[in-house]
């Protein structure tokens, strides 16, 4: 039995182990992408959400300061080699800044490995599903050329089903968070290990964890977090110290990636179905109404009384919706506050003060 | 549609408005003959009063159109032809945003949006538009409430979020034409995806319009669109002449019809007049500047709130902006428009604007323009409010400087927010850049 989260392997350890077994590493920028497809070709996806706290010197030379810190920190970490030497860089099109990053890396190479950006459809319906399935098929053909591997349809489907099982358990961890008795910071280390652990390892760990039954006390103020990524992660301890009880999240990197399984027998179509059926996300172009509905469902289901929007500075997709979402939540009796952070700098003291004042007002 | 709004529309627009605007045009034309706007600039183009007349008429129609015709608000790169063929009145919030900046109203309107919670990190067009929506204020009088929104992601994702906000605010349907970004050319599945959306778009637009689309009418509208785009390309190509009869500033002002009136006769008529005037200038050896010493490229959106300032500052130093990637974007795709295959050609055309292709493609476009327009240098506007246009400019500038030995300047500003622009700093940087050009020549 593992003890959590102390025994969680680090990203570096997981990468080294995968490489040691002859595997390849794909660095993947946010947000949505076909994990199963990469795995079927022996790539282990390592997600790049910042990382926070790194110097952005390399980005300063190429990317304007008004691009968000996820892109600037990620670019700097990538081109400086701090993320190791990947075999592939995958850049999903999540926003204008990531579009620019993907295009720059492709047309003005700054890393030695292949770079594959791809577009994520914002429209819904069958046309979007078919487009995405065809795009995944195109990526698959390129990966065949790159690796010399030719996984069969059966292999691809098996890979997708492994990811679906990991996603199913991830969703359970989210739902049943209260009964595992993990402090928020530890819980999110576990949840976010999906960003780098192979599906099989994540599944094993999640099963063990779900067997635990150590309900903690939930005397704090029940709330939800919404945003892109819970970074710097000290915000989670800060919230706990200030008396918050985190009941759920709507982070692009966490709660908005609880993918339901696809239903098709065609692996590419199934991957597309699963990805497009994720909870509403501004980065997939969801409507304001859908996002409000989702947040209200989350709060009603969890008993949350408030939502803290913990955004990244300059992140347009998130900033656009805030006034209307907050007004709708207020009409439904939910309090909210908005914080913007820059991943390149540590959490400013005023954030602590604002959170404390907000929670005090709620209590 | 009831009779009341129709009567009100015809009284104010057809009967009184048109006459008044015609009279205003004639008065302005006679004044223009007697005045000279700036010592270093040629007299304004004689077609300018006509441009003002048709743009004013467009906004005048908007004031009285509600209840008379269906209204659609449209993003600037969207495939509007089906809406034109269905008789919608079209309003372009981006053009309106530019108008607000030119008339020095954008700051006031952005403050309204910011007070309502919209971040200063959002695009300044959006903040201007939302400020206008929330306050009801506009230099164009009042804007008609939309019955429908049409948004195409071929210029940025910002427009999608912007239109989501508008759809929520007005509680009206939003048609989205989602155009995959072309990192490496258009794939068959990208074309098929857009074409399927075009078909859904027509059905939804018909439902809102309450009438069926006439395909013959659509073909006619597409022919007019293609003619206008071709004319616009020929107008801009006059900038290749030495001296250039127009500058990018003229193009920025005169691009109103190609954005707002694509698919309409008035747009084609106007551009025929403008082209004729420019050809006359070329024949007579009249340049847009009194003295054209340097020929420059402008990349990215204009700084709408400082158009005149830039124009006069550069003219005083003999620097003619003879080409711009922005104005050029509306003249590039005429050959892809095929009125006989409306849906298929729309998918192809609307996938390919400069903002929907990779940063390397944009560099190649700029490199081509350096040759075609015999350019001495380039100014790349790093626009705080336009990430898709701006990210990649550092590499593009480096490639222009190192690959083509074209001196290039990256200039920080914002197309609509005067608070994100320092004239002192910009003028210092432009002076230094022009001095460098001088030393190169």
Can you describe this structure?
- Chain A is an alpha/beta fold and about 375 residues long.
- Chain A has a domain at about 10-155: Rossmann fold (3-Layer(aba) Sandwich), CATH 3.40.50.
- Chain A contains 14 helices and eight strands.
- In chain A, the strands form two sheets. Chain A has a four-stranded parallel sheet, with helices on both faces.
- In chain A, helix 7 runs parallel beside helix 9.
- The longest helix of chain A is centred in the middle third of the chain and has 23 residues, at about 125-145.
- In chain A, about 55% of the residues are buried.
- With about 450 residues, chain B is an alpha/beta fold.
- Chain B is globular.
- The termini of chain B are far apart.
- In chain B, the strands form two sheets. A four-stranded parallel sheet of chain B has the order 2-1-3-4, sandwiched between helices. A four-stranded parallel sheet of chain B has the order 6-5-7-8, with helices on both faces.
- At the A-B interface, helix 5, strand 4, helix 6 and helix 13 of A face helix 7, strand 4, helix 8, helix 16 and helix 17 of B.
Tags for this entry?
heterodimer, A: 363 residues, alpha/beta, Rossmann fold, four-stranded parallel sheet, 14 helices, 8 strands, 14% strand, B: 441 residues, 19 helices, 9% strand
Q: SSE layout and pairings?
A:
The complex is a heterodimer of chains A (363) and B (441).
Chain A: H1 11-20, E1 24-28, H2 35-40, E2 43-47, H3 57-62, H4 69-79, E3 88-93, H5 96-107, E4 115-119, H6 125-147, H7 153-175, H8 184-191, H9 199-211, E5 221-227, H10 234-241, E6 244-251, H11 267-276, H12 288-302, E7 306-312, H13 316-331, E8 335-341, H14 349-362
Parallel strand pairs in A: 1-2, 1-3, 3-4, 5-6, 5-7, 7-8
Helix pairs in contact in A: 6-11, 7-9, 7-11, 12-13
Chain B: H1 3-34, H2 48-64, E1 71-74, H3 81-85, E2 89-91, H4 93-102, H5 106-115, H6 124-135, E3 148-152, H7 158-170, E4 174-177, H8 188-209, H9 215-237, H10 248-254, H11 256-260, H12 265-284, E5 294-299, H13 307-316, E6 319-324, H14 325-328, H15 342-351, H16 359-372, E7 377-383, H17 387-390, H18 393-404, E8 408-413, H19 423-440
Parallel strand pairs in B: 1-2, 1-3, 3-4, 5-6, 5-7, 7-8
């Amino acid at each position: 039995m593992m003890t959590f989260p102390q025994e969680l392997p680090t990203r570096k350890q997981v990468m080294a182990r995968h490489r040691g077994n002859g595997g390849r590493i794909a660095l993947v920028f946010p947000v949505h992408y076909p994990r199963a497809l990469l795995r079927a070709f022996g790539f282990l996806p390592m997600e790049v959400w910042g990382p926070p706290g790194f110097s952005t010197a390399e980005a300063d030379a190429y990317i304007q300061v008004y691009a968000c810190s996820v892109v600037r920190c990620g670019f700097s970490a990538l081109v400086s080699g701090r993320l190791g030497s990947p075999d592939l860089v995958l850049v999903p099109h999540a926003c204008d800044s990531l579009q620019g990053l993907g295009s720059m890396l492709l047309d003005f190479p700054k890393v030695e490995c292949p770079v594959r950006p791809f577009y994520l459809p914002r429209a819904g319906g069958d046309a979007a599903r078919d487009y995405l399935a065809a795009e995944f098929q195109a990526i698959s053909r390129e990966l065949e050329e790159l690796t010399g591997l030719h996984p069969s349809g059966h292999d691809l489907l098996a890979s997708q089903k492994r990811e679906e099982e990991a996603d199913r358990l991830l969703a359970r961890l989210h739902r049943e968070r209260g009964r595992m008795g993990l402090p928020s910071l530890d819980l999110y280390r576990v949840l976010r290990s999906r960003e780098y652990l192979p599906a099989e390892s994540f599944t094993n760990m999640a099963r063990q964890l779900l067997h635990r039954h150590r309900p903690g006390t939930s005397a704090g103020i029940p709330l939800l977090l919404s945003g892109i990524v819970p970074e710097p992660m000290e915000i989670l301890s800060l919230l706990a110290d200030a008396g918050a009880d985190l009941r759920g999240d709507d982070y692009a990197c966490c709660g908005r990636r609880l993918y339901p399984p696809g239903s098709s027998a065609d692996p590419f179509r199934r991957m597309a179905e699963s990805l497009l059926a994720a909870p509403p996300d501004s980065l997939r172009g969801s409507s304001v109404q859908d996002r409000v509905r989702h947040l209200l469902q989350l709060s009603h289901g969890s008993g949350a009384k408030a939502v803290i929007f913990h955004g990244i500075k300059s992140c347009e997709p998130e900033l656009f919706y805030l006034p209307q979402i907050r007004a709708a939540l207020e009409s439904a009796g939910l309090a909210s506050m908005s914080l913007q952070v820059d991943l390149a700098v540590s959490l400013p003291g005023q954030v602590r003060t604002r959170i404390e004042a907000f929670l005090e007002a709620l209590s | 549609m009831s009779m009341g709004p129709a009567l009100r529309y015809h009284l104010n627009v057809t009967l009184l408005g048109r006459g008044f605007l015609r009279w205003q045009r004639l008065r302005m034309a006679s004044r223009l003959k007697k005045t000279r706007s700036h010592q270093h600039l040629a007299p304004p183009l004689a077609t300018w009063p006509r441009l003002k007349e048709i743009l004013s008429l467009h906004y005048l129609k908007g004031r009285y159109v509600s209840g008379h015709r269906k209204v659609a608000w449209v993003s600037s790169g969207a495939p509007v032809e089906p809406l034109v063929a269905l008789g919608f009145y079209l309003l372009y919030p981006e053009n309106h945003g530019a108008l607000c900046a030119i008339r020095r109203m954008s700051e006031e309107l952005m403050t309204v949006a910011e007070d309502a919670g919209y971040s200063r990190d959002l695009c300044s067009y959006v903040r201007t538009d939302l400020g206008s929506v929330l306050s009801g204020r506009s230099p164009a009088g009042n804007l008609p409430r939309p019955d429908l929104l049409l948004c195409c992601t071929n210029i940025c994702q910002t427009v999608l979020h912007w239109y989501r906000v508008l759809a929520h605010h007005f509680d009206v349907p939003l048609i989205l034409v989602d155009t995959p970004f072309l990192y490496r050319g258009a794939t068959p599945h990208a074309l098929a995806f857009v074409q399927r959306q075009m078909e859904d778009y027509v059905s939804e637009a018909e439902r809102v319009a309450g009438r069926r689309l006439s395909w013959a009418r659509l073909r006619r509208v597409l022919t007019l669109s293609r003619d206008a785009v071709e004319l616009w390309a020929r107008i801009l190509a006059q900038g290749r002449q030495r001296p250039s009869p127009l500058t990018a500033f003229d193009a920025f002002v005169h691009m109103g019809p190609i954005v707002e009136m694509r698919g309409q006769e008035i747009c084609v008529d106007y551009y025929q007049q403008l082209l004729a005037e420019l050809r006359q200038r070329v024949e007579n050896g009249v340049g847009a500047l009194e003295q054209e010493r340097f020929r420059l490229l402008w990349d990215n959106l204009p700084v709408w709130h400082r158009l005149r300032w830039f124009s006069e500052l550069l003219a005083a130093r003999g620097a003619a902006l003879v080409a711009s990637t922005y104005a050029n974007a509306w003249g590039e795709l005429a050959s892809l428009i095929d009125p006989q295959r409306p849906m298929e050609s729309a998918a192809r055309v609307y996938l390919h604007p400069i903002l929907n292709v990779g940063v390397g493609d944009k560099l190649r476009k700029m490199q081509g323009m350096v040759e075609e327009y015999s350019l001495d240098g380039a100014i790349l506007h790093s626009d705080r409010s336009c990430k898709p246009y701006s990210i990649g400019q550092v590499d593009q500038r480096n490639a222009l400087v190192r690959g083509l030995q074209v001196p290039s300047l990256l200039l920080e500003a914002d197309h609509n927010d005067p608070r994100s622009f320092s004239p002192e700093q910009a003028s210092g940087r432009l002076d230094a850049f022009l001095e460098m050009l001088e030393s190169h020549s």
